[in-house]
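Action item from last week, closing it out:
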Amino acid sequence: MRYPASALFCSLFLFGCSSKTGTRNQSRVASEDATGTSGSESTTDSDDPDTASAGDTGEPEVPLDADFVMDSVLLLPSADGFDLTGDGVPNNALAELFENELIGEALGGSPNGYIAQSVQRGELLVMLDFVRLGSYADDSNAGIEMLLGAGEDDSDLFSGDATLQVRCGSLTPDGAAASAFDTVQVVDHALDGAPGEFLFLMPFAIDTTVVLRQSRIEGVLRPDGSGINSGRLGGSVTFGDLREVVRNDPEIGPDFGTLMLAILEGMLDVDQDGDGTPDALSAMFRYTAVSSTIDRDAACVED
């Protein structure tokens, strides 16, 4: 039996897939599979942060806050992950799941094509709202609020000057960001934020969420503030959260759900509660981002 990777990945790990119709914004994004094979790269991506022009006067005046939207997101190979257990070995069990010859085939193969499509269509808009940022080069007291975005179907979401609204599911009842990295350091344009929690929203069931806990974010800020290169985002999701998602997904069904939970339980690799038994599944993503304007004053968009 083959279970489509698109539906499974959206159910378990996508930050919030929305179902939309009509003309889609077509951003060129990376479509690298879980083994590391690269497809077309975003025209805004560059591993050299100094390639962006800063103008005739050097680095521009930096605003207090900087907004970005991810224009590419993909699951990295299992050999690439943060060391979440302190044993010197990268943790990325989600990639191992898809790389397994038998399990990966049953799941429909690498999910990265589906992730790229979701980004292209504006169904997956992950936004980074920097706070307390004083410089794109060096800052020891910044923070990042992680939000899910909504944009018009016919808008140029990744042009660098798009204005995006916030989806209600990524906010607390009082309007604050539900997920954030409160401690972010920037050294020579390289950002590093940890620890944090990252809320993944489920579109198929009300009040169903998955939280990437003990998470960490990295990236390289372009000198002119136009984007983020070489980004990585990783953490782990508890088995309890995964079980709730699988049981509430109408597309999975009880038979495959039982099998899926047994497989996931056998691949847990992180002990979040410290009792000596792994209780969470690690995941590691790569991303790039371009500048945008996040409209925090407008009413949020219902999921």
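Closing note: The chain has one domain: 5-295.
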